[in-house]
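Homework-ish question, so no full write-ups if that breaks the rules, but can someone show me the predicted structure for this set?
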Amino acid sequence: MSRFKTVAIVGVGLIGGSIGLAVRDRKLAAAVVGIGRTAPKLKKAKDLGAITETSLTIEEGAEKADIVIVCTPVSDIAGHILQAAAAAPSTALLTDAGSTKRKIIADVEAAIGADKHFVGSHPLAGSEKTGAEHARADLFNGRVVVVTPTRRTSNGDMQAVADFWSGLGASVLIMTPDAHDRALASTSHLPHLVASAVAAKTAQVDLPVTAGGWRDVTRIAAGDPELWTQILLENREHVLKSLAGFEKTVAAFRTALERGDKRRLNQLLTEGKQVRDAVGN
Amino acid sequence: MSRFKTVAIVGVGLIGGSIGLAVRDRKLAAAVVGIGRTAPKLKKAKDLGAITETSLTIEEGAEKADIVIVCTPVSDIAGHILQAAAAAPSTALLTDAGSTKRKIIADVEAAIGADKHFVGSHPLAGSEKTGAEHARADLFNGRVVVVTPTRRTSNGDMQAVADFWSGLGASVLIMTPDAHDRALASTSHLPHLVASAVAAKTAQVDLPVTAGGWRDVTRIAAGDPELWTQILLENREHVLKSLAGFEKTVAAFRTALERGDKRRLNQLLTEGKQVRDAVGN
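A: Not a homework solution, just the prediction itself:
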């Protein structure tokens, strides 16, 4: 028997589409409703097998949902959660897949009814690729999903959302929204900014001598600028702090280079290697 | 019939080992002599099939070589080329695989006899992995090798070195040593420094929330600190210029973030995306 009768997914791109594929692959729900603004995109997701039904409005699409996962750009998430909360049965579980958490959750909690069941989530499974055509049923397999309860969250709701992601093969980490945003500023948002700056500073004429290293460092710079503008701005305090630390380390490299300080350069590079080696491939 | 009777490789790590495997795989030489300081490392390379003979000295190992490729750390290359030039037949072709070119080539040309045949090379096929155990016969397949002649280089020698790399499946680009170093500062040395700084700034406690983006950006930070200290110092003027441009772009990001300037952030991210998209996977 399926765990859910109806799963509703708002936004069926890479993440939303992969949730649909994973839910269907693992037979966790009888119906998966894809909700989006444009019929062709929904049709594509349905053709790919990511969803079983489509809806152009949250009002209609969330009506029978046992769980709604909002996978739209971060600026839209709070509004979509509130719409889903109004449309779905009062027992429905509500979560999202946004890359930032503090502002989204504050905005939702400021307006949502006390009887609703919202808990924020962030699956660490994004990519520079977007769209349901890149969706995969195993996208969450072995990946981390951060679930971010607040003082208002019941243990039951937190557990239910955690179980949902575990059911898709993910490992769940519980963090506060602010701890999430602080950590992700350093592990995701700063790296994105830096990758973009390295790419932007590479002259056209030098592109033929880019190799694997450059391609790795800059890969995520291919991400959607609009989505990433939103992410960086929503988390700007933490990103600015992380950036200040990074600029200091870069300045230390510069000073060591200017001075020809072999020992210091080696020390700085060794610090980077130690952290990188701790993570592995 | 093989193109060479004897190929000698000084330093049989990832690059040297892969040259040996590629030469043997393509039957370009009757004998491949691996030259190194430690017998066990040479034995491993021989067991892997990368070389057919071993020698603990350049004097002995280069004695019969038609071509010598020096694949040691950049600080050692000029000295090893000069040793090889003294040991090898006067007709032997001499080249290297160093990540920097200007200083190595100046040092070699200041001391080498006018009758010798040295042309610098840089195969863009490095990796954070090191050692002959990661060597692959197809490492140079479809990769770029930069060959860096000077005013002293004869066209015949340049062509012969270019043909050697083409013979291993690489595309050859001809650049001056200084143009190479200027370009690589921006496409390889700066990215390495930046990857290292991002890794070093990531706190231990945040490592569980690193995902694909972080892993891509920081991958090359796992490279050997000693090798990269040498590379950054040998090319420090160009790296410092490239770094100054990068710091300016990062500061532009910071200002846009501080001001909450959505339009400017989007513009900066779009510049990075355009360059990245031009390169592809």
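Now go work out the reasoning yourself. Hint: The radius of gyration of chain B is 21 Å.
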